[in-house]
Amino acid sequence: QVQLVESGGGLVQAGGSLRLSCALSGRVSSIVVMGWYRQAPGKQRELVAEITGTGRTNYADSVKDRFTLSRDGARNTVYLQMNSLKPDDTAVYYCNARYSLPLVGSSWGQGTQVTVSS
């Protein structure tokens, strides 16, 4: 069974930084893409950043130049470094992974709260 274990998050003042981590546990043949989504109250879940198995990254326009997604392939872990945080970044952040078992599968983490105070 594939699980995503998230850590990080919390409360920070505007302009501050936080780092989120997400580790994939379980046996998979390959990871297609891993990344983070977020959902603010009353809004739809949206992509924040993702990284492919080949290391290509994709960011939402709203976080470019502020957030950096990296990965440790040996540990099947991704890290989201969030700098210059804004109150608009307040949301529940969810880790997502798409992988091959070899059949393609997808999993979500349970979510971690990020709150940015003004």
Can you give me a brief rundown of this structure?
The chain has 118 residues and is mainly β. The protein has no helices and eleven strands.
What's the arrangement of secondary structure elements?
Blueprint: E1 3-7, E2 10-13, E3 18-25, E4 30-39, E5 46-52, E6 57-59, E7 67-72, E8 77-82, E9 91-100, E10 104-108, E11 112-117
Parallel strand pairs: 2-11
Antiparallel strand pairs: 1-3, 3-8, 4-5, 4-9, 5-6, 7-8, 9-10, 9-11
Explained architecture:
The structure is a single chain. This protein has strands at residues 3-7, 10-13, 18-25, 30-39, 46-52, 57-59, 67-72, 77-82, 91-100, 104-108, 112-117. It has 118 residues and is an all-beta fold. The strands form 2 sheets. Strands 2, 4, 5, 6, 9, 10 and 11 form a 7-stranded mixed β-sheet that branches. A hairpin with a 6-residue loop joins strand 4 (30-39) and strand 5.
Beta content: over 45%
**Tally of contiguous helical segments:** 0
Number of strands: 11
Write down the secondary-structure element order.
EEEEEEEEEEE
Rounded mean pLDDT score: 95
In whole angstroms, how far apart are the ends? Answer: 41 Å
Uncertain spans:
none
Fraction of residues in helix: under 10%
Shape: elongated
User: By helix and strand content, what is the structural category?
Assistant: mainly beta
How many whole angstroms does the radius of gyration measure? 14 Å
- Main β sheet profile: 7 strands, mixed
Say what oligomer this is.
Answer: single chain
